[in-house]
Amino acid sequence: MKYKNSMDQKQWQRASTLSNDLLATSYETDLTHGLTDTQAQARLKTVGKNVLSANEQGWWDLLVRQFKSVFIYLLLFAAILSFILGEYIDGVLVLLFISLNVILTFFQEYKSHNILESLKKYFVAKTTIVRDGKEITVMSTELIPGDIVSVKPGDILPADMRFFQTRELAIDESLLTGESEEVEKVADTLTEEPKEIFLAKNSGFAATTVVRGHGMGVVVATRSETVAGSTARLAAETKRVSSFETSMNQFSVFMLRLVVVTLAVLFVLHLIIKGPSLQIGDLLIFFIALAVSVVPEALPVVFTFALSHGASKLAKANVVVKRLTSIEDLGNIEILCTDKTGTITQGEMTVAGTFDQNGSALSVGRQGIPDATQISNPFDQAIIDAAQKTKETTPELTLVETLGFDPKTRLDLSLFKGKKFVVVVRGAPESVMEKCKLSNEDQKTATAWMESEGKKGHRVLGIAMREFDRAPKEWQKADGYVFAGLLSFKDPLKPDAIAAAKKADQLGIQLKIITGDRPEVAGAIAKEVGIIKDAADVVTGAALFAMSAADQLKTVAATAVFARVSPQEKLEIIRLLKIHARVGFLGEGINDAPALKEAHVGIVVANASDVAREAADIVLLEKSLLAILDGVEQGRRVFLNTIKYIKITLASNFGNFYAVIIASLFMPDLPMLPIQLLLVNLLSDFPMIAVAGDTVDAEDLKKPKHMDLRAMGFFTTFFGVVSTIFDLLLFGLFYRMGTAILQTAWFIASIMTELLVILSLRTRRWFFLAQAPSRVLSFFIIGAALATILLPQFAFTRHLFSFAQLSSSHLLMIVAIVVGYLLATELVKQMYERLVHAQVESS
Q1: Kind plus residue range of the DSSP H or E element containing 156
Q2: What does the pLDDT read at residue 63?
Q3: Could you tell me which of 308, 296, 310 has the C-alpha nearest to residue 248?
Q4: Which of 600, 572, 570, 441 is nearest to 509 (CA)?
Q5: Cross-strand bridge partners of residue 148
Q6: In this structure, what DSSP letter does residue 805 have?
Q7: Whole-angstrom distance, CA of residue 188 vs CA of residue 168
Q8: Element (H or E) spanning 31, and its range?
Q9: CA 68: distance to chain centroid?
Q10: What is the pLDDT of residue 560?
Q11: What is the rounded average pLDDT for all residues in the chain?
Q12: Residue 106 to residue 304: CA distance in whole angstroms
């Protein structure tokens, strides 16, 4: 297979089974001299630059996205109809609300976009390769299949490669696999193709980091044909639809059907009752005003204000929101899936325990570190840190020679010179103990301790030493070591991990760990943080997808920890969970990108891979699970206040809507002029918009909420009927007092009842026992009430809006109706909570 066919996504699998000679032949290269410059230039034209294409978004894309909503289309249609029929004030108001929504949302998302651009990191800029027999440095974008690459500690691999030469090479592949332990690499040819990348011991992968040692490899894949590139492509192909967008689209269709059907029925009734005297033109204008008055046109602005308020609070907690509607989606999640390393754990190895035998394991382990000033191995760093804390002293020794970790013997050896010559051996406990003279009892005790630590998910290192009076010959082959003991290592929990798990439980959110790490490690961490009770309650990706489809659904719902999971398996797990729940996913590696895109809400940390950051909705500038849960609370506040607005508006609007419809059937004139209907809309909308920043009762934050159109229908019916009854009561009282007096009284009562219904329906409690409304909401309620009372009192506004002068007795009648309406609403609310709300929620 030649380099021209490198579009094969499994290049690394095939290359891992090739001998060095076949490797060179397959990729038309020379392992010693590399490609010629002529070959390289020709191949670059064929294959293309080594650039992982990204889905860049400009300001125009962000702006256009703000208009992609069925509800916005509905409002635009209402505005156009208003202009056609000459209702210019109404048309301008609707366009004003749309413009405010678009501008606010665009600037919030554009600000977040710029913050993230400033955080962007790239693959390593330069790479050392062999060309024409010379070692040179080139931009990583110039790499092509067949290039010979030299890697050293700190390098980020710029492409997928097959190593043909290694020396103590170890690579951190956590960005791809999620596994925290470094991977030892060898140049051996594998006998069969590895199914997973963690089995490809002779291969290196783009975006992974060299921890220690040196290696030479042949580039086998670049660009989107790398493992990282195929994962990025999988993320790009995964399309997400916001749960808010879905709910709003459903709500828009619900509203449209209800209004159209009602007006059609009303038109027929008018034809039947009024017959030839019906003024079709006036009736159409009245219908348009009615339709617009019932649609909650300020909803986009309310929602955007609520989201912006939430985004500002989250920004103070170092949480950047890329997609504004994701705050509401975050509040609705029922399951939060997270990787383990760096989110629940600190991502740094520490010494968890010691087993000493004939000396100090920690002290001798510290001796075995050749140079403490140049540490790239996390286990060596952990030993040094632990030795400093315990103030362990090490003798003055000079390093004579060292042999790095040998994957075959699973040991590393170092020879030192002090008062005597000392050889320190470290590595796999079984291999170390084989070199020592241990009694059966001592070996059983050490093995039992090692197994105990293994069950905790800790990695165990064996340590031994031997002293020589003079420089030993062939010291590498010596045995008869004195067993110093064992050290166990763990990646400790983050300080807030347990508190975060408890808070998730309080918020009614299931925490699930999905990781590429080993089952025993994932299980031990999950048990320690309190997610599971038994560390064995872990399911691997292979075991899960060997099940039937029905069993997969049951297992993902019942299981809290998934280990050894590939990127594709992560994606499938999220898809399975989404069937019955709202899912958030927290990750940071390239391997997390598809799952981040698939989840209802994708969350990453700021130093995550570029691919993961592009796929996410929310970025944490600090790694903190608690910050996400604070975001959940903010999201729930946004959702609750948005639903408040919808419910209050629908209850009052539909109450007036049906009352005006009924009254219009029995009146020669309209019960309220179109301009008066629009003024009612205007004065009540500003307090309604202020609901966006209202306070929320604590008990309403305890579990996820969803927009339920069935519940919305029940609510609208219950409270709309109450509003209609009191509107008709007012109609009955003022019907014979003249059209102008009736219209004025109806205008005042309509606004006052809408203001009071805000106070009532903003909470499920009795309104006088609920948390006080926000200052802004209180200000707008008082302001709207004063404007409503004063407008009919001045000659200019009385003439402008065709009002009549009301007497004190008229006003007292209105007050009685308004107070009665408030009491009735409160009583019906309590009945609704007991009889209807419980049934709707349980279903």
Answers
A1: none
A2: 64
A3: 296
A4: 600
A5: 130, 218
A6: P
A7: 13
A8: none
A9: 21
A10: 92
A11: 78
A12: 10
**Greater model confidence, 420 or 391:** 420
Closest to 217 in 3D by CA, of 375, 46, 18, 8: 18
d(CA 692, CA 326): 16
Query: Which tokens is 600 given?
Result: 């209802």
User: What crossing angle do the helices spanning 739-761 and 674-690 adopt, rounded to 10°?
Assistant: 20
Tokens representing 244 are 């808010």
For 546-567, write each residue's pLDDT tens digit. Answer: 999 999 999 999 999 998 887 7
Q: Using DSSP, state whether 320 is helix, strand or coil.
A: strand
- How far apart (Å, rounded) are the C-alpha atoms in residues 681 and 658? 16
User: What is the average pLDDT across 198-218?
Assistant: 83
What pLDDT score does 1 carry?
35
DSSP string for residues in 255-292 = HHHHHHHHHHHHHHHHHHHHGGG--HHHHHHHHHHHHH
Q: For the purposes of burial, counting CB atoms within 10 Å of the CB of 786, is it exposed (0-12), middle (13-18) or buried (19 or more)?
A: exposed
- Determine contact, residues 108/311, Cβ cutoff 8 Å: yes
Tell me which of 153-167, 622-636, 651-665, 715-729 is least confident: 651-665
Q: What's the chain's length in residues? A: 843
CB 684 within 8 A of CB 652: yes
The pairing of strands 459-468 and 482-490 is antiparallel
Strand partners, 426: 412, 463
Q: How far is CA 764 from the centre of its chain?
A: 30
Q: Which value, to the nearest 10 degrees, does the dihedral of the CA atoms of residues 372, 377, 381, 386 take?
A: -120
Which H, E and C letters describe 682-719, residue by residue? HHHHHHHHHHHHCCCCHHHHCCCCCCCHHHHHHHHHHH
Residue type, 769: L
Q: Report the largest interatomic distance among the alpha carbons of the chain, rounded to a whole angstrom.
A: 123
Q: How far, in Å, CA of 682 to CA of 676, rounded?
A: 10
**Confidence band, pLDDT 50/70/90 cuts, at residue 816:** very high
- Tell me the C-alpha distance between 695 and 674, whole Å: 34
Distance CA 536, CA 503 (A): 24
Q: What's the DSSP call for residue 405? A: E
Cα-Cα-Cα-Cα dihedral of 393, 398, 400, 401, to 10°?
A: 40
Residue 122, pLDDT > 60, answer no
Structure token digits, residue 156: 């980020």
Give the mean pLDDT of 93-109: 64
Write out pLDDT tens, residues 415-434. Answer: 888 888 888 888 888 888 88
If pLDDT is split at 50, 70 and 90, which confidence band does 644 have?
Answer: confident
Radius of gyration of the chain (CA): 35
DSSP lists the bridge partners of residue 209 as 156, 172
184 φ/ψ sector (left φ>0, alpha ψ -120 to 50, else beta):
beta
Q: Phi and psi of 744, rounded to 5°?
A: -70, -45
Q: pTM here?
A: 0.64
- Bridge-based pairing state of the strands 510-514 and 539-540: unpaired
Query: How far apart (Å, rounded) are the C-alpha atoms in residues 838 and 842?
Result: 6
- What would the two tokens of residue 226 be? 């790398």
pLDDT at 219 over 70: yes
Number of Cβ within 10 Å of residue 784's Cβ equals 23
Dist CA 239 CA 424 (whole Å): 55
